[in-house]
Amino acid sequence: MKKKLLLLATGGTIASLQGDMGLAPSMEPDELLSFVDKIPPLYQLDSKLLMNIDSTNMQPESWIIIAEAIRDHYAQYDGFVITHGTDTMAYTSAALSYLLQKGSKPIVLTGSQVPMSFEPTDAKRNLQDAIRFACEEINGVFVVFDGRVIQGTRAVKVKTKSYDAFESINHPYIGYVDGTQVTYPFEKPINDNQPLVCDTSLCTNVLVVKIYPGFHPDILDYPLHHHYKGVIIESFGSGGIPILGRNLLPKIEKLLDAGIAVVITTQCLEEGEDLHLYEVGRKIVEKSIIHTRNMNTEAIVAKLMWVLGKTHQPAEVKKMMETPIAYDRAER
Ligand SMILES: NC(=O)C[C@H](N)C(=O)O
């Protein structure tokens, strides 16, 4: 049976044309599709333009627009393709993994490093691959890019120009697309065909701070005095914060005392935090901070906004953040 797919276009390089001020998204979804080699027996496709923006301009409110469009059309289609800029695609793929849970259909994000109208370009292949993967019997949110299928909570943009811009971090690739062929390196994930759960309440009062040698503890006064509900600290290596010199512990205690969720992650892309390893990590483990294990920052930001959209109660926030959703974290 032919699959019924919906393409939701949001802009990005894939839809960009050269203007006086540089590349800017302006192509309509039908124009994008005119470049694609159709696989007529496999699918029938409708399209809708949700926004036409550089993904630099994506906001959490834009994630909600995308999620609600999918929710509203969920019953009518077998799969969804979202064309999106690459710069914040990993945030959107993570966010949609929280906003739209369970379900029975694939939601596939793609984009390109070079506009569709340029030659050569990666846009044509990526869009074709995304459409092909959206025909699979699989559920969840995925990024399809340069022939690789990545779980939505595990994609990270690691290159600014090359075609292989995205990697699956701390998680295996779900699959590969080559022409009309989809292969799975491991067992194909089981589609347990559950009803879609759409929950779009978000709290955006979240701050990410990357510490560095010389980071001044006073910076952490800012979230305290500006109604922030969550602070994500990108610490070093296996995880730890300075406890000598510009000691961050007293300020972190103040944040926790004020009921602000403090989340610790690592600046290292691979293998995740292990705060128990070193004294500089253990000191903070004694406090009720939130562990992230091997989650990526994009997923942590989206998950924290989503969790804080439901509760500000510290123990609840910690429990929800530390509970795996959509394969976003693995315990050791
Ligand atoms: N390759 C791209 O799509 C980059 C673009 N600035 C965007 O994220 O919209």
UniProtKB/TrEMBL annotation:
Q: Which SUPFAM superfamilies match?
A: Glutaminase/Asparaginase
The residue ranges of the Asparaginase/glutaminase C-terminal domain are: 205-321
Where do the L-asparaginase N-terminal domain residues begin and end? 4-184
In Gene Ontology terms, what is a biological process of this protein? Answer: amino acid metabolic process
Q: Which GO terms describe its molecular function?
A: asparaginase activity
Q: Which organism is it from?
A: Shimazuella alba
Q: Which reaction does it catalyse?
A: L-asparagine + H2O = L-aspartate + NH4(+)
Positions contributing to substrate binding? 55, 86-87
Decide whether keyword Hydrolase is in the record: yes
Q: Does the keyword Hydrolase apply?
A: yes
Question: Any idea what this protein is called?
Answer: asparaginase
Which InterPro entries does the protein's record reference? AsnA_fam, Asp/glu_Ase-like_sf, Asparaginase/glutaminase-like, Asparaginase/glutaminase_AS1, Asparaginase/glutaminase_AS2, Asparaginase_C, L-asparaginase_C, L-asparaginase_I
Which family, according to the similarity comment?
Answer: Belongs to the asparaginase 1 family.
Keyword field = Hydrolase
Q: Which residues form the active site?
A: 13 (o-isoaspartyl threonine intermediate), 13, 86
Annotated EC:
3.5.1.1
Which enzyme type, at the first EC level? Answer: hydrolase
